[in-house]
Structures are given as C-alpha cells and as structure tokens.
Amino acid sequence: MCRVIVICNQKGGVAKTTSTVNLGIGLVKEGRKVLLIDADPQGSLTASLGYVEPDELKTTLATIMMAVINEEEIQPTDGILHHKEGVDLLPGNIELSALEVIMGNVMSRELIMKEYVEQLRERYDYILIDCMPSLGMITINALVSADLVLIPVQAAYLPVKGLQQLIKTISMVKRRLNRKLQIQGILLTMVDFRTNYAKDIASRVHETYGAEIEIFHTVIPFSVKAAEASAEGISILTYCPGNKVGIAYKNLTQEVLSYEN
Ligand SMILES: Nc1ncnc2c1ncn2[C@@H]1O[C@H](COP(=O)(O)OP(=O)(O)OP(=O)(O)O)[C@@H](O)[C@H]1O
C-alpha cells in the first residue's frame, strides 16, 4: 500500500525540503520505492538533489498539472528523474507560480494533483510532497492528494499562531475534500541543544499541541552539515552518515516505518 505524505508548513525555512530529501532517501535505504514531488516554485527540492537549474527543466509538476487540466494524455512516468541515491523525483520550478494563477478559473481545481498522484500509487511505497511556504491552491492540491501530513517546526520561536492556521486549513481540507487525511506528526527541526531557549520551545510545543497532535519522538538537531549536503546534491545520510542530523533522520525513518504496522 502506497502512503502519500505531504511535508507542509506555511512558515519558510523550517526544513521542509531537508526533511523531504532525508526521510525520502532514508526510506529508500530501507528498501522502499519512493517518489519525491517538488511542489514549491523555488525548486529547492529539485536543486538540493543536484538539478541546480530547475527552471530549465522541460517536464515538471507544473507541466504535468497543466496537462491534467487540459485533459492531454500523459504517461505517469513523464518527467520523473532518477537520483543516484535511488529516489525518484518529479521536479518543480517557477512555472508553479503561474499555474497557481491559472488554476483560479479551473473547475474542481483542488483535485488536479490528486488525479495525477492516484496514477502513481501502484508504482511506489511512499510519495513525499514538499510544499511551498504558503497555503495557496498548490498546497491545497497536495493536501487533497495525501494520506498524511508531516509538519516540520523550527524550534527557534514559538510557532503557535502559524500552526493554528495550518491546522485549521488541514481540518477544512479533511472535512470538505479528503476525509482520510491525518496529521502524522509535528517534527521539531534545527534544535540547538546547547541553548535553553530551544529546549523551552520544544517543551512548549509539547504542552500546546501534545494532546491534539502526535509529535515525533525524533528531534532534528542543528548542524551546518545539513546545508553542506544539500549544496552537494545528496542526502546527509550519504554525505556524512555519522553526523547527528543524519542519525536523527535515520531515526525518523524508523518512526515513519513503524506506522506501516
Ligand atoms: N538540521 C539543520 N541544521 C542546520 N541547518 C539546516 C538544518 N535543516 C535545514 N537546514 C538549512 O536551513 C535552511 C532552510 O531549510 P529548508 O530549505 O529545508 O527549509 P524549507 O522549509 O524547505 O524552506 P522553504 O520554506 O523556503 O521551502 C537551508 O539552508 C537548510 O540547508
């Protein structure tokens, strides 16, 4: 059974892309077939897997969604790239911004991505969708396509307001468009264990949301190696396997796998 996980938070720079890459490749290393979809016009997921000029790619999530809108014939594998670490990637680029505007006039516009993702379910064990930092129509499409939402939260400020908006949007999508949608958990990222502040934020997230939402036991520490790995176009699991961030993503992978049972 394929599981579609959306990595989502409308706050920018909270490690959505880093978590998509390292959880995705972590799952590949555990023998799962994984597709990553870049649903961010910045194309950071695409770039951090080594395709450093996302805007030059011909077939991307935007062109595929446009083909669905125009009812053109597409093969499910069109545009999918194979990364050297064994993960597949449907790239994304700036054309997603234009698409978001065009979609304003399209009938059943929330369902476009789902129509495509459904065709891919039989080919993969996991499909991870990396969202842009906004709750616009592309992100809504990702939530409608998904089974689970993973919410990275940077332990650097108290994210209460932003998270409430996100949780409200997820509940609305669940009520109106995708009844099976579940929040898999909040993932605390970039935690600097040397500071009391980070520890304080972590415990306040537990106090505020712990009763309502799962919080992953795994916490992702802060390390500059995370940025170095993405500049090399590979996961931190391969770039620096013994690094604390790599170890944390391996633990996160095990937690995600434990939901298979
Ligand atoms: N554990 C970590 N320790 C230190 N730096 C990190 C860590 N995880 C990610 N980063 C860095 O933080 C920055 C933001 O991370 P990332 O791009 O994954 O966030 P994002 O939520 O996807 O951003 P956006 O909202 O712009 O799409 C990047 O420079 C990344 O390399």
From TrEMBL:
Listed transmembrane segments: none
InterPro entries, per database record: AAA_dom (IPR025669), DNA_Partitioning_ATPase (IPR050678), P-loop_NTPase (IPR027417)
Domain AAA: 3-183
Catalyzed reaction equations: ATP + H2O = ADP + phosphate + H(+)
CDD domains: ParAB_family
A Pfam cross-reference name: AAA_31
Family, per entry: Belongs to the ParA family.
Known partners and oligomeric status: Dimerizes in the presence of ATP but not ADP; ATP-binding is required for double-stranded (ds)DNA-binding. Interacts with DnaA.
Protein name in UniProt: Sporulation initiation inhibitor protein Soj
